[in-house]
Amino acid sequence: MCVRAPMTRLGVLAVCCVVSLVMSPTLSADPTTRVMDEVIEADPTTHSMSLLMRGAKPSQPDAYLCTAYPVTDLETYIYKFQAQANASTAHHMLLYGCDGPAYSTADIWHCPSVCRGQQTILFAWAKNAPPTELPRDVGHRVGQRSNVKTLVLQVHYAKGFVRNESPDHSGIIVHMTDRRPKFVAGIFLMMSTWFQVPPHRESYPVDMSCVYLEQKPMYPFAFRTHAHGLGKVITGYLYNGTYQLIGKGNPQWPQAFYPVEDVIEVKPGDSLAARCTYDSTHMDQRVGVGATGSDEMCNFYIMYYTDSSVQRPGAECMNDQLPELTGAHFPSSVSQPLPPNPQLEEVASGHHHAHHQHGMSGGQGGVAQVHTTQVHTTQTPTTQTPTTQTPTMQEIHFDHPLQLNTSWPGVELTVGQVGGVSVDQRGNLYVFHRGSRVWNAASFDIDNNFQFQDSPITEDVVLVTDSTGHKIRSFGAGRYFLPHGIQVDHKDNIWLTDVALHQVFKIPAGSDTPTLTIGHRFQHGEELTFFCKPTDVAVLSSGEFFVSDGYCNSRVVKFSADGKVIKAWGEKNLEFGVSPPPGTFDVPHSVTVSEGTGQLCVADRENGRVQCFDLEGNFDHLIRHKEFGPRLFAVEVCPLQGVLYAVNGPAYDGPSDLTVQGFTVDMSSGQLLESWNIPQGLRNPHDLAVDPTTCGSVYVGELNPRVVWKLTRADRSTTPTPHLHMDTQIVNNNKKNQIGQAGPSDTQ
Ligand SMILES: *[C@@H]1O[C@H](CO)[C@@H](O)[C@H](O)[C@H]1NC(C)=O
Ligand SMILES: *[C@@H]1O[C@H](CO)[C@@H](O)[C@H](O)[C@H]1NC(C)=O
Ligand SMILES: *[C@@H]1O[C@H](CO)[C@@H](O)[C@H](O)[C@H]1NC(C)=O
């Protein structure tokens, strides 16, 4: 069984199988904690809440059942968890916090689905573990003003119930205080969203790393590792000039939270690096990422506390963003397995592992001392001045944030739904828009055939303005049907894609008539001489060009300057609910090249990510941040700055608190440098363009409202400098649109 982890659609990365125990008894044995506890218990501001299964009687063992309890308080703090269960009934219990309603409104439901939106693990219990409490003066913030609005208890039953047996009420009692403690607890999750473990490898590494970008330092006090059957050892470090071990775990042991040995302070600007090491000696084929027991996962959870002024603690780090800290740079012991621990191995080999692929990784070692280590929770962490520099990291920095340019005409620049925008070498803007036409459910039949082939758009659909928004010229009336992408190349040739015509056009600089047309008018196909709703074009200085194709094909096609196919790559991603492998697309919606670095990046729209390749189509890296949400619409590189600009879009049915906005990403590391927006908020951005000579102006075209915005970096001393901010908004979007089929009101 698998439990949906907090997070993104991509990260439907499950927390599979056993999660148990939690922090060691040593935590509660800390005398200072006890004293604190008594003080709090005598306080009238404390109360408790019983989160018990509402009378379950599963007929089979191994049932995973959930029940939900909304938190009605505005803001309160859990400082102690007390299990009320018997291991002969409940094998293990997990307590989740949902940032919204529970997955189901039923009294009891079959997990794994726990929450509708974001979720975090607050507590885990197994095997009659004694009461566990948080370190002194640390609480989990819950309540309607927090990101834990609903508590969900999950019980993994150890047995089936017979007919006349009384129903079960196992559960957890949480003790809470209304007094804000000095620190709040949170979970920081490191994970790898894409990797493959090759067969016959005794020790295969998967690395993760990123900069810690929260505003306040975090103090890890427990950690948990998660992998499936091939996982051998998972090790996580803080890097602040030297590597500081946060924890090392054997994922074949109970995947509990184990205490962190030393007091560690992770300061803003410090880095985190972790490695999962796999043993695939007995595998005959590659194993990819996925939620099932025959896939693998790589997760390192850090349970930490931070200053209680942090409103929504919890963050995550995906993939290997700082390769200069990982790989061969790790301490040499990183992949060394832990010594055997028969006791833990026995626990882990319980019946609850039935669905695991066991025996493949040979259960190396253990570390009993992990349970006896004293956690120095009584020490009050010192506050240090945050730094934003990591010594080994070359950080791109902007002195001023991107902001709406108020002298730009904005809505006064009349356009239809904006398909694409592009900027030429002189800084002129080119807009390809749909005039009075709207793409809706009537536009195509189910087979992607355009339904109004006698009705070209009667207005001019290409608009050219100077950098202040003054119109230079317009053209294209009577020729196009459903404008999509536009790209002006270094010689000012204009490239257009029309999704109704299934064609790509090249118009020489200054002209308004195509001299090169690729694809067949109104005919789509999978053969390489056809497109199917092609979305965008990127052009090299040699004249060779790339087409992202598109809504119904899922590929990138490379052409010679005279329009002959050189090669194509990419496949539709047919997998659902897991991180699709690179090279598979769900609407490649926008394509951009950085010739100097030999990189081509694609906005893989419905997968909410960017995929970068070399110019021959070999996969290079993937960029995905939780702030993107489930859908990423457009990308454009600024080679001068070495950055990639991107815009996301609203989720189809995701939480409404996803911020639609723009992003600036370091092209080489994938690091998110900044997010930006207009004061009223972007709503349905469809494309963006960057002035290629200065990278100083970014234009965003929206479908609705029908407008092009201009953002510049204001050179005013009153302007606040940009903070490298990480949004805590997380999207969990389960629904996908069908490729090429727009819903009734969808405009693509
Ligand atoms: C746990 O359940 C078993 C079997 O039902 C019972 O014999 C035992 O007394 C219970 N233990 C506790 C502590 O309730
Ligand atoms: C690195 O982190 C450790 C543990 O928090 C700390 O003791 C040490 O002083 C830190 N070093 C620097 C240079 O900040
Ligand atoms: C708007 O952009 C232009 C350059 O494109 C710049 O000169 C001007 O200062 C910007 N105005 C504001 C208010 O940022």
Automatic annotation (TrEMBL):
Residues 367-389 have a biased composition (Low complexity). One of its GO terms (molecular function) is peptidylamidoglycolate lyase activity. Binds 2 Cu(2+) ions per subunit. InterPro entries: 6-blade_b-propeller_TolB-like, Cu2_ascorb_mOase-like_C, Cu2_ascorb_mOase_N, Cu2_ascorb_mOase_N_sf, Cu2_monoox_C, NHL_repeat, PHM/PAL, PHM/PNGase_F_dom_sf. It comes from the Eukaryota. One of its GO terms (biological process) is peptide metabolic process. Pfam families: Cu2_monoox_C, Cu2_monooxygen, NHL. One of its GO terms (cellular component) is extracellular region. Ca(2+) binds at residues 421, 687. Coiled coil: none annotated. PANTHER family: PEPTIDYL-GLYCINE ALPHA-AMIDATING MONOOXYGENASE (PTHR10680). Belongs to the copper type II ascorbate-dependent monooxygenase family. This is Peptidylglycine alpha-amidating monooxygenase.
